[in-house]
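Changelog-linked ticket: pyridoxal-5'-phosphate example.
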Amino acid sequence: MKVNSNFDSLVPNYLFADVARKTNEFAAAHPEQEIIKLGIGDVTLPLAPIVVAFMKKGCDDLRNKETFKGYPEYEGYDFVREAISGYYKRFGVTVQPDEIFVSDGAKSDCGNLPDIFSTDNTVLVTDPVYPVYVDANLMAGRKIVYASSNKENNFLAIPDEKVSADIIYLCSPNNPTGAAYSAEQLKVWVDYALKNDAVIIYDAAYEAFITDDSPRSIFSVEGARECAIELCSLSKTAGFTGTRCGYTVIPKELKRDGHSLHALWYRRQATKFNGVSWPVQCAAAAVFSDEGLLQIRDNLNYYRRNAKLISSALDELGIYYTGGKNSPYIWLECPNGMGSWEFFDHLLQNAAVVGTPGEGFGENGKGYFRLTSFGSYEKTAEAVERIKKLLS
Ligand code: PLP
């Protein structure tokens, strides 16, 4: 037998392993120093009380014969899809409940969605990029092309009319750059996709962090329903990284090659996915209740306050960065022309602060660095003081 030789084309990504190794070595050599991690890509605050209460209720239901639940529907329970549809309505976007697929998170969906497309399709991603989009498509043998996000376009890549693509991944607010597209910029991508008969897979995992008038959904842009699929996650919105729940929206009218993409995805999910557990769906619906939205806002504001601390320090230091405003990520230009690993070492050795070297996210990450706001306020404030002392 043969294995999938496409795995040979994956570039080994030792980023987080190397970060951990260097951090551990420093800790062993300097046991007296407190290391502060500003590279955390995971949430640290607990679930909101109402979410826990509904998850517990869901567990109680499973204890009783009358309320017990077996296999859930592949696309999620109606009350959850209605709650998500209601959430969209709050920011002025109409998405019907039956266009929503509840999932175990955005990572699986962004990696699995291309199952419904031919492996002959070309995939366009922005550089720097959330690596899952690239690796999932390389595994399937698809060709990848890159759109450059860089300082000139404020890390918001725009389409190149000379490049054609079939599947386009956009992530806004972006991981790793924190940059968020405006409605006008997204319209350019929508027009490009329509012209190319392409489909945009729009990753809105960080939409809840938006504080200005940047679109919370690609479906607020005219024409998007004819060319876009949107995926979102409760991971960062409501602290579900360990609980696992997300959702994907495929408009009913979205067709390619004579097929409804909604119908193809339903078929795919029915074959390879058996749904999200009852307690987790109960918890997910609670997130979108009036009380749930109020409660998750506390955690979002906590992370926003950390982001503001970091971005204000960079403003003071005169360092170029994107993100921090609509995003838990701050993407900064390494000072004094340092490379991203060079800056990593500099920060670790002289301030005992850990971040993520940008080059782990693509060529355009060289010379850039990602900090995150998922740490505690006290530790973030301390790290910021150390960074200011080191760099001023
Ligand atoms: N999409 C982006 C851009 C992310 O940064 C992440 C997580 O870091 C995910 C998707 C994964 O989300 P989930 O936890 O729902 O799988």
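Closing comment: Example verified and attached. Residues 41, 105-107, 130, 171, 175, 203, 205, 233, 235, 241, 246 surround pyridoxal-5'-phosphate (CB under 6 Å). The first helix runs from residue 15 to 29.
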